[in-house]
Amino acid sequence: MDPYAKPASGAPGNGPDSPQDRPARLAVGVVGAGRVGTALGAALARAGHRVVAATAVSDRSRTRVEERLPGADVATPQDVVAAADLVLLTVPDDELPELASGLVSAGVPVTGKLIMHTSGRYGTAVLDPLTRAGALPLALHPVMTFTGRPDDVNRLTGISFGVTSPEPLRPVAEALVLEMGGEPVWITEEARPLYHAALAGGANHLVTLVVESMDLLARAGVAEPGRMLGPLLGAALDNGLRLGLDGLTGPVARGDAGTVSDHVAELAKVSPESRRAYVALARLTADRALAAGLLKPEAAELLLEALAD
Fold first, then answer.
1. Judging by DSSP bridges, how do beta strands 160-164 and 183-186 pair with one another?
2. Model pLDDT for residues 185-208, shown as the tens digit of each residue
3. pTM for the whole thing?
4. SS3 state at 35
5. What is the CA radius of gyration of the chain?
6. Residue 7: in which H helix or E strand, if any?
7. Going edge to edge, which strands form the sheet with 136-142?
8. CA distance 305 to 43
9. DSSP letter string, 36-97
10. 59-87, pLDDT tens digit by residue?
11. Distance CA 83, CA 94 (A)
């Protein structure tokens, strides 16, 4: 197999009737049978590749392999890599550098093998020990949350993947993303930390904000906070994605310093942590609104006084 050959597209109607009959089918190994690894392995199997082996230590991970990757052997990381043409390293970010160097130290043959990780934090430099040993490095980060539910694989359809690879491997990386149903977005090596910080700040902190809002509404006597928030937050998210800052509403956008001051005082009584978050985000909102010309300087000054520590 020529590792630099572009795998066939998984798009409907772009190849033989059976995915398994397409050229450049790969034997796939999964090191880290968690939610992400098994979902991507299943997506690659759907595209006609063969998932031949996976690591699984806990009962839960073994169950995932049985359910999502039927026919895959449960093996050690060394044996998984040895059996595969394409290896998915789907372990927590902090474990990835040690895993990459450990596989080389163990003498696992990697020459000519595609070694792919799914970390948003790293590009391909984290795989340098493997690259020096002859591996072909790929960083393909799916921009999606994975819950471990059966619909994880279907949720890959249409999502973005942050792609980083050596330039000769870029067609391979992008083709694999397309086969999994995603859309490749090129991210340079040096931009990976900022890229990941942006995604984590948006997605992870959004969940925290939603849960905090529901808790505060419950303390205010609302019986079903989620039901109340759903339409509002859905509209706010849609406005932000479609309109950017022009979709901003609320007391900060209106320059309503009195209301903001009341919010800060009330939050100080019931949740100092929430108050700090509110103040920080309101300051950022005011700064952006001022810079965009949505907020007059005198209104911004009053707001910042209300938000002073």
1. parallel
2. 999 999 999 999 999 999 999 999
3. 0.85
4. helix
5. 24
6. none
7. 73-74, 50-54, 27-31, 86-89, 114-117, 136-142, 160-164, 183-186
8. 53
9. HHHHHHHHHHHTT-EEEEE---SHHHHHHHHHHSTTPEE--HHHHHHH-SEEEE-S-GGGHH
10. 999 999 999 999 999 999 999 999 999 99
11. 25
